[in-house]
Structure formats: C-alpha cells, structure tokens
Amino acid sequence: MEKWRFIVTEGMSPAMNMAVDEAILQLHSEGKVPPTVRFYTWNPATLSIGYFQKAAKEINLELVQEKGIGFVRRATGGRAVLHDQELTYSVVVSESHPEMPSSVTEAYKVISLGLLHGFQNLGLDAEMVSLASEEEKEKYSSPGSSACFDSPSWYELVVEGKKVAGSAQTRQKGVILQHGSILLDMDVELLFSLLHFSSDRLKERMMESFRKKAVTINEVSNRPVSLQEAMEAFRDGFATGLKVELVKGELTPEERALAEELAASRYSTDEWNLRR
User: Can 148 be counted among the known catalytic residues?
Assistant: First the structure.
C-alpha cells in the first residue's frame, strides 16, 4: 500500500495556515515532500474568504477586527468560512498521481471519499450527492449569501439531507490542493454578523435558509464528538478513501521557512487579503 505523509499542525495564525498549505504544494511540485494529508486548527478563530470574493463589499471588516477574529483570503475559490469549532483538512497530491482523475470534478470526488468515510466512522449516516442537475444544486445553495456552506460544489456530503462539509480546490504547478472545514459546532449568528447584507430582512432570510441546508457534526450526532475523536475518525477515513497508509510526519524545515516567507509576503498583507 502506498504511504502518504500525515501531519497535524498546532493552532496557527490565518496567514500561516494558508502559507503552510501553499508551501506543501510548492515543495511537493519540486519532489521534495510526499503526498500529504494535513489536519489543522486556527488561532485565533478566523474568517477566510474565497480567492474571488470582494472583501470590502462582502465582509464587515471592522466587526471582524473588533471581535478579535482573524481574516485571510484563501488561494482557493468558494465563499466565506468561519474557522472556529472545527477540524480543517488539506490534501496535497500531484495531478499526475495514478489514482487522481484528470477531471477536477472527479478528483474532488476521490479526495472527498475520505470525508465520507470519516463521517461514517463517527456513526453518521453520511452520503455523497452528485450535483449534476440544477434541481440538486438548488437544494444545497442559497443565492445571495456570502457564506461558504451555501455554495454548492460538484459533489455534496450530506447527513439527514443537510450539507456537513465545505471544501475548495486549486491546481498549481501540476499539484492539487484541496482543503476544507469539518464543522463540530458553529455560531451561525456570529458568521452572518460578519457578512454584509443589503437589509436586516435579507440577512434573516439567508440565515434561516443556511440553517435549513447546513449542519454540524454535533447537531446530528447522538453524542458529543471531540476534536481528537474527529481527527482519529477522519484520519482513518482519508486512509480508506484514498487507499493509502498515512504515516505520521512533520513539516520539514524548508516547508516551515517557505511558509513563514509566504505568510509575511502574501497572506498577512492587505494587498493580498483586500485587493479585490
């Protein structure tokens, strides 16, 4: 069985978390590190936005700062995510890997099988739903909201008909980076307070729609699930889904140095985070 590296990093700043994902991608493209599954958390709790979002237009940046919440733009698409009571994952693997389909959609599906098995390991009745039809897309989307879990991807992981994970993918230098949020709990009101809406009425309507279409692990689990238990369930899930052996490892000194450089030069700068 093929061996991939498995890393759990300490709670990092928004800039460092995004920089580490990019550093792994870059050094994997150079053949210096193996395919990698990484689990991480955020310090402080952070609002991340998708690469194409307009920060000033869509986000209440003053309130983000006032509440002591971190802020960063991801290199991947999608919408705003509040990273707080969650386990975040990233998968870095070459586009040319024999188990990775050339289609973005199908590669997304293969990687997301790890999530599916992780939820099932927690005893949840999870399934992967194809969003091939407009009808299916409509079930999991809420037009007009900047919140990530309202944005449908190609395949949706659902429990009891509600979305349970939000993921995004980018391809650079011949390498796939997919990362996403596995929510244990979520403060929906806090998330929506950080987003701009044209009226309070629209905000309430979007929040109500969001609650109908998204759910957290501890809302559907019949018992509380800890972060540690989630890590174990999803580590086994990714090993099963990707058909690999995950071997515990660490970031290399070169990865850390590159990440620190990227955090300082890109992910902590207004030019990157507010440029649109």
Answer: yes
